[in-house]
Structures are given as structure tokens and as C-alpha cells.
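Consider today's protein:

***
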Amino acid sequence: MSDDKKAGEFLHLRELMKGAPVPPPLVQASMFHLPGDPQAAATYGRAENPTWEVVEAALAHLEDAPAVLFPSGMAAISSVFFATLKAGSRALLPSDGYYATRVMADTFLSAYGVEIVQRPTLGFAEGGFEGFDLVFVETPSNPGLEVIDIAAVAEAVRAAGGMTVVDNTTMTPFGQRPLALGADVVVASDTKAPGGHSDLLMGHVACRDEAVLARVRDWRKFAGAIPGPMEAWLLHRGLETLEVRFDRMCRSAEAIAARLQAHGTVADVRFPGLPDDPSHALAAKQMQRFGFLIHLTLADAEAAEAFIDTCALLQPATSFGGIHSSAERRARWGDDVAPGAVRLSVGCEPVEALWEAMNAALSAL
């Protein structure tokens, strides 16, 4: 084809697209027009949706790997477990990671004959990885913010014949890139910073192994763990501003963590960006940013609750990653933390106004 003909067809395509909406279409459909052979077309709302595909393309761009969308972070995590494990398999999980992952594994996978082993993030590699089919890593851990060497774990797990899955919820692709460090699969809750506005539930799986990804897609289709088109559309909106919001949140968290550490009422602060944090050297090596979560410990449960409830710019809520700063006392969920431990999610408020409100609440304790 001549260059002139190519240019002509391109101009014709532009004319056909002129006036098309800039945002992706919101396709609310369970049925699609499907005469004849169903191949190469949308078939049914449980199998595919054009809005999902737009969001998956955006996530794939961020992850540099194909992505599959799910209606929550736990749906994404569950899909990897149920798509790759079977009776007799062994899986290793962090004992200090997100509690829902452990509960799901202990309650359901164990009942199906999967052996679940737990180790703390610190010392996670002690005992080796021989005999494990799946090793699940969460770094920084939620809520303690311990950091583990993804590249070293992934290399050791691969040598032992297993698969490494990394929960990258706390960092997003803008803060940490587990696949580039050797992980086999990334899972994440997009309910958090990717959505960003505390108005949707969503998650995704990213993986460069097409066989694993095909199993994950089949699990979604046949288990029915599918995202709603409206929520997918909202997530796409959030992804368009994720880099800007994430940058603001991380910069603010760095400033606030240092001030919290110097405040007389705060017993302890964990934040990978603090130069004296035990995880700082490793975090600086494998993370692009230090994140927006801060783990601080106050005197007791009463002090923690008072700080959260009286700080004018903190939302007392579970979850994290929204544009509004939020905090919660994690011991109330049974996490193995001090009674006065607070998980603080720094949002997009002006940092000086946010610190002024925190300082006032802390100084009143």
C-alpha cells in the first residue's frame, strides 16, 4: 500500500471518529447483538464488556503486563488462589499481612485440601521455599509497613519451582513494580488509590504468563466474579489522575511522618521513607516512592481513638488511599499490633492544614 493511500485511510478514520466522546463509553449490557458465529464478538455480560476492556488496557499500560479486572481486591486475590491451587498444593502467606487474605485461605482453601503456612514478613525467607506451589508476598505489609526483598524472594521461589504473587495494593504501579523485580503475578485492590474517591470496589490481576492469565479469566467467567460496568467506568476516571494524586499523597506523607516522629505524644512511627526506619534501605532500593501510609503508635487504645475522632481533617474509616485522609485503630480488627496502633492514610489535603489539624488533636491527648 502506498504512503498516500495509508494517509488517506488514516484521514478517513479520523473523520469517522470526529465527535466521538473523549471519556470511554459506559456499556450497561448483559446481552449483545450476536447473529451467526459468536467468535470475535462480545457474547454475554458475564464473559466480556467493552468498558472492562478499556480499563484493562489502562491497567496493562501501567503494569506493563496484561491485566484482568475484578469487582474487588479480594476477588482478584481469590482468583489467583483458586485458579492455580488444588488439593495437595502448599501456599505460603505473610502472617502480618492483610487479614482477609489469611481468613479466605484458612477458611476455604484449607477445606479443599490446600496446606496454608504463615510466616511473618520479617524472616519470611527463613525455612526456604521448597515445596511451596504459591508464595504470597505483601510489601509493605498491611498494617505494619514491613518491607521484604521482592527480587530475592522471587528468585528463590522460582528456583524452588514455585510461583510468587505480590499484593501491590499499598504502592500502585507508580510506587513499586513487582513484575519488573521478578514476581510472577501482581494483585491489587483498586478500591484504594487507583479509584481514589472512596466510591467504588475494584481489583485486578496482572501477569505475563498467558497460561496463568487464561485460568484467571476462566475463573472470573465461570465463578461470576465480574466487575460492574459503572464501577469500571469510575475506576478509569480514577486512573487518569492516579499519578498526580499519588505524588501529592506520598510527598505529604513524607513531611507528616517526620513531624509525627518528633511529636512527644507519639510512641513510635513506621514509615519506609524515614531515614532511620528499619525498612528504609530496602525500600529505597526497590520502591520508586515510599507510599502514603504511616503506622503510628499512641499510648493506648483510648488515645488512638481520641486522636482519630477529634482530628478535624481525618475520616475515621477503614480502607485507605482516598483523596481524604483517613485513619483507624487496626487492633479493633484483630491485627497483631499494639492497642494504640493507628494506620494513617494521607490524602490530598494541603499538607500544612492537615498537619495543623493532626498536631492539635495529638497535643490535646
Q: What stands out?
A: The longest strand covers residues 90-94.
